[in-house]
C-alpha cells in the first residue's frame, strides 16, 4: 500500500480544498498574532469553523499544520523576475523579500514560523523546503545572467540568491536594522558584486 502524501503535497478540490483553506488561514492568523504556542488544533478548528476530528485526522500535530502552511505559501509565492538584467532581477528579489518581511501579517508570520522551526522538526523541514522552492525559482535569474555573459561561468545560482536574502533576514532577526528599499538594494548589490568577483 502506497504511503499517503504529506500535508500540502496534493491540492485537493471541492469541500476538502475549502476546509484546508479555512484551516490554513486560521493557523496563519494564530501564528502571526500569538506565535507557535498558539497553534492549538482544537482552537484552530473552532476558528476555521471545521470539525475538530477533521483537523486532528488531517494534520495531527501543530508541527504538521505549520509545515502545511509553509508548503502552501511556497506554492503560492510570486514567480521570479525576467527583466533581462541580473542587476534588476536581484534587486526585484531583494525588494520582494523586504516587502514580505515588513508586511504587518507576513512579517510576524515568518518570525513565528522561524521560531517554530527551532523547536519542531516538522516545521524545520518545511521551512527548508520553502526556501529551497523560492531559491530554485529565482536561481533562473542567475543562470540566465551566466548565459548572457553577465556573470562568470560556474557561478552557483542558488548561492547568489541565498546571498541576496541573507542580510535581510539577519536584519529582521538579529540587528533590527530598518528593512526598506535601500536595504534591499544594498543586499542585491552585495550579492551581485560577490558573484561578479567569482566568490559564488
Order of helices and strands: HHHHHHHHH
| Anisotropy-based shape | elongated
Mean pLDDT: 90
Helix percentage: over 70%
Task: Tally the beta strands.
Answer: 0
Approximately how much beta-strand content do the residues carry? under 5%
- CATH homologous superfamily classification of the largest domain: Tetracycline Repressor, domain 2
CATH level 1 name of the largest domain? Mainly Alpha
InterPro entries: Homeodomain-like_sf, HTH-type_TetR-like_transc_reg, HTH_TetR, Tet_transcr_reg_TetR-rel_C_sf, TetR_C
GO molecular function: DNA-binding transcription factor activity; transcription cis-regulatory region binding
Keywords: DNA-binding, Transcription, Transcription regulation
Protein name: TetR/AcrR family transcriptional regulator
Kindly describe this structure.
The chain is mainly α and 200 residues long. It folds into two domains: 15-65, Arc Repressor Mutant, subunit A; 74-197, Tetracycline Repressor, domain 2 (Orthogonal Bundle), CATH 1.10.357.10. Helices cover 72% and strands 0% of the residues. The protein contains nine helices and no strands. The radius of gyration is 19 Å and the shape is elongated. It starts with 13 loop residues before the first helix and ends with a helix. Residues 1-12 have low confidence and may be disordered.
Which characteristics define this entry?
200 residues; mainly alpha; Arc Repressor Mutant, subunit A; Tetracycline Repressor, domain 2; 2 domains; elongated; disordered N terminus; HTH-type_TetR-like_transc_reg; transcription regulation; Tet_transcr_reg_TetR-rel_C_sf
Amino acid at each position: 500500500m502506497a504511503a499517503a502524501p504529506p500535508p500540502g503535497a496534493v491540492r485537493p478540490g471541492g469541500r476538502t480544498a475549502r476546509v484546508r483553506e479555512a484551516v490554513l488561514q486560521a493557523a496563519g492568523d494564530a501564528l502571526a498574532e500569538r506565535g507557535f504556542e498558539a497553534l492549538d488544533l482544537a482552537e484552530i478548528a473552532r476558528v476555521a469553523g471545521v470539525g475538530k476530528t477533521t483537523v486532528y485526522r488531517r494534520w495531527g500535530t501543530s508541527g504538521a499544520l505549520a509545515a502545511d502552511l509553509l508548503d502552501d505559501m511556497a506554492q503560492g509565492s510570486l514567480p521570479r523576475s525576467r527583466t533581462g538584467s541580473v542587476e534588476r532581477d536581484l534587486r526585484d528579489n531583494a525588494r520582494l523579500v523586504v516587502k514580505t518581511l515588513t508586511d504587518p501579517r507576513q512579517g510576524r508570520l515568518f518570525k513565528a514560523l522561524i521560531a517554530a522551526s527551532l523547536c519542531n522538526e516538522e516545521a524545520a523541514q518545511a521551512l527548508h523546503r520553502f526556501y529551497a522552492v523560492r531559491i530554485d525559482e529565482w536561481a533562473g535569474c542567475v543562470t540566465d545572467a551566466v548565459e548572457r555573459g553577465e556573470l562568470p561561468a560556474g557561478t552557483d545560482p542558488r548561492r547568489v540568491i541565498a546571498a541576496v536574502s541573507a542580510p535581510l533576514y539577519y536584519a529582521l532577526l538579529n540587528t533590527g536594522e530598518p528593512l526598506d528599499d535601500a536595504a534591499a538594494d544594498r543586499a542585491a548589490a552585495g550579492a551581485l558584486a560577490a558573484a561578479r568577483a567569482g566568490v559564488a
